[in-house]
Write a structure and sequence with these properties.
The structure is a homodimer. By secondary structure, chain A is α/β, with parallel strands linked by helices. In chain A, 51% of the residues lie in helices and 13% in strands. In chain A, strand 4, helix 4 and strand 5 form a beta-alpha-beta unit. The radius of gyration of chain A is 21 Å and the shape is globular.
Chain lengths: 290, 290
Amino acid sequence: MIKRLCVIGVGLIGGSLARSLRRVQYCGEIVGCSRHREHLERAREMGVIDRFETDPAAAVKGCDVVVLAVPMGAMREVLKRIKPKLAADAIVTDVGSAKRDVLDAVAEVFGEVPPWFVPGHPVAGTERSGVDASFPSLYDDRPVVLTPVAVTAPAAVRVVSDMWENAGARVSVMDLQRHDEVLAATSHLPHVLAYTLVDTLARMDQSEAIFDFAAGGFRDFTRIAASDPAMWRDICVANSDAIVQVLEVFQGHLEEIRQAIAEGDEQRLETVFTRAKGARDRRFPPGRQS
Amino acid sequence: MIKRLCVIGVGLIGGSLARSLRRVQYCGEIVGCSRHREHLERAREMGVIDRFETDPAAAVKGCDVVVLAVPMGAMREVLKRIKPKLAADAIVTDVGSAKRDVLDAVAEVFGEVPPWFVPGHPVAGTERSGVDASFPSLYDDRPVVLTPVAVTAPAAVRVVSDMWENAGARVSVMDLQRHDEVLAATSHLPHVLAYTLVDTLARMDQSEAIFDFAAGGFRDFTRIAASDPAMWRDICVANSDAIVQVLEVFQGHLEEIRQAIAEGDEQRLETVFTRAKGARDRRFPPGRQS
């Protein structure tokens, strides 16, 4: 149980967390915070939060758990604002997609990484954003990764872990660097590719006519390119090392495929495509809703 | 109306065409043909076809319309087999994803492109294949592109166009070269990227653990990588010029993005991501089922 939860950033991620915890009455009170008063009013109207503050310093007052659900680029500023007003026993966690960058910001603002800060990342979401896109089952059976470091208090990890389990998620603990590399491969790189593909088509002559012949496969492939551009700009900057690393490996493989296509190397094409289909089918077995 | 339709290749595409035409009783008889007797038996059992032949030469006998729905790589061989047995007034069309290659095969087998051959391409499909994956509404409101050339008989184009309209599709006529370029961009390149991405992850250390953290965005992005590898090998070879051309443009844009990420160029990232989201939202408006 959390007596008073503060959710800073009441969008898809923060709003869905609040709603999922309400389902099981896990919080005495939920305080929302955002720069946008109208978003907060909407969130209160929808019953996502009990009350709100537009000032993070005011919002965290008396809260036992604080969740930072703001875009990566806003993390430093919010940490600075809440620092003087955090309760002595408050536990702070975040939902950022790149953990090294968040931890650097925390260390910068607090002088060192405090034991009560638990880096976290719910691996869930949709291409939509904002509190209107939030829903209580977003985290049901979805992975949430916590990446505590040496100084992180085990008791703080337990509090954050309990919160996410009550939100419906499967919690696991992972090395921070490993998290950033894995997510660069499974999430950040696909977003970069989808954005770059759609942009390539958009920059072609008569691009509107080209898009007319984009069918269902294209729609699914590019769904993530409908995601919030500012959020993904922030993630690319925050996790740039790991993204560039896996992107360069991908570029090497893509160049091999280009050569195989140019040379009509059927054997190589079939090998790669078959290996890829096999890996994808193992992860998302055909027949089930895929 | 078609008196006797021959569908060579009774899989997702050919099977769905037969089923969509049955809905409106557009054919007196539908004859199926495939190398695999068990697929044909299954198709007859399901009521997709009336009867079958495993020999294309026998299958086309007395048919007024013949649809070649075999993989691109099998096209030449099938054309050779049916050549001596086609009825004098038969009209032949195909469903291949790359039209120049099909037309080259036709010209090679028949000495020249005959007026009764109508190159066609239904821009529809799923990642599944085989007659069990076929369904009657696959073509409803989906684009079918016909790419007749100078010698193609307008009357033959009308017959094929009527057939597809009765299957539920929206038929348009496009320049053959333009078709191959547009489909390279909207369909073939996305498949190449999806296969290459999944393969890149599959070749990493501890790849199974990496895939555990692949969420909904990854699932949608890579759905097309579950497509039949042999079919896509054939398409890559058949449309290699157009695919390599658009792939090289994409590679240039991807390298620009890599540099922007490496340099933390937020402005450039936001510009590209915003332009991409705008183009994608125009094609598939958010809020509707996307």
